[in-house]
Design brief:
By secondary structure, the protein is mostly helical. The protein has a single domain (65-233), classed as UbiA prenyltransferase (Four Helix Bundle (Hemerythrin (Met), subunit A)). Helices cover 79% and strands 0% of the residues. The longest helix is centred in the C-terminal third of the chain and has 28 residues, at 206-233.
Length: 236
């Protein structure tokens, strides 16, 4: 997990190096890390990912190149498609699939696929919200995003639809995995957080959108994890 996350962030920084220097929202990032340091961190974290996969089981090692492809290619997609948010969602949707493969050593069960679809829509939805802050910059630079293509109002509507599918997917995952009331409570809290996220995202204030993106989504993940943990460790 640490290797994949670090490699993805380093590759993203390298791929968008010039773009981030020109974007007022991201230009300060280059004061934190140099390009050679980012390249070195990418190499080390990718090696960490491969070594970690090798120690888990043969299936994880076989799937490791696909994981590396997913976590790197998404950084390039905004150069040619407005639906780059879905590629980011796909990259993070690989996480529950990888976790299932790591623990079970197989991918023939329904629950990880349902959860992966829910994660894809969840991530794509909140990335669309986050991209509204760069809408005008993306248009000037010829970069692609749903807000840049459809405008802020329609983009937020698309994000709401994606999060509606995500909420349904999280509920179906609980059913497919045979989870009980503690997960149901967690799902209700997570769904409430998604509704709240869209309520506060109607503002165009960067601080408000940052709160919706970073804080509320962290709560969504945490409560779902807590619901699964209680169900598996205590009530089963």
């Amino acid at each position: 997990m640490v290797g994949a996350r670090t490699a993805a962030m380093c590759f993203n920084r390298l791929a968008d190096w010039q773009i981030d220097q020109e974007n007022p929202r991201t230009m300060d990032r280059h004061r934190l890390v140099s390009r050679p340091l980012a390249m070195g961190m990418f190499a080390i974290s990718t090696l960490l990912l491969v070594l970690g996969a090798q120690q888990l089981n043969p299936l994880c090692l076989v799937l490791c190149p696909l994981a590396i492809l997913l976590i790197t290619v998404y950084s390039l997609t905004k150069r040619f498609t407005a639906y780059s948010h879905l590629f980011l969602g796909l990259a993070l949707a690989a996480a529950p699939m990888g976790a299932w493969a790591a623990v079970r050593g197989e991918l023939w069960s329904l629950p990880p696929y349902v959860l992966a679809l829910a994660v894809l829509c969840w991530v794509a939805g909140f990335d669309v919200i986050y991209a509204t802050m760069d809408m005008e910059f993306d248009r000037r630079k010829g970069l692609h995003s749903i807000p840049a293509r459809f405008g802020q109002r329609k983009a937020l509507g698309i994000a709401q639809a994606l999060h509606g599918v995500a909420a349904l997917g999280f509920a179906l995952f609980g059913w497919a995995a045979g989870l009980g009331w503690s997960y149901a409570v967690a799902w209700l809290l997570a769904a409430g957080c998604l509704v709240w996220e869209h309520r506060i995202s109607e503002s165009s204030e960067p601080n408000t959108i940052n709160r919706a993106f970073f804080q509320i989504n962290a709560v969504v993940g945490a409560v779902l994890l807590l619901g699964v943990g209680l169900e598996v460790l205590i009530f089963k």
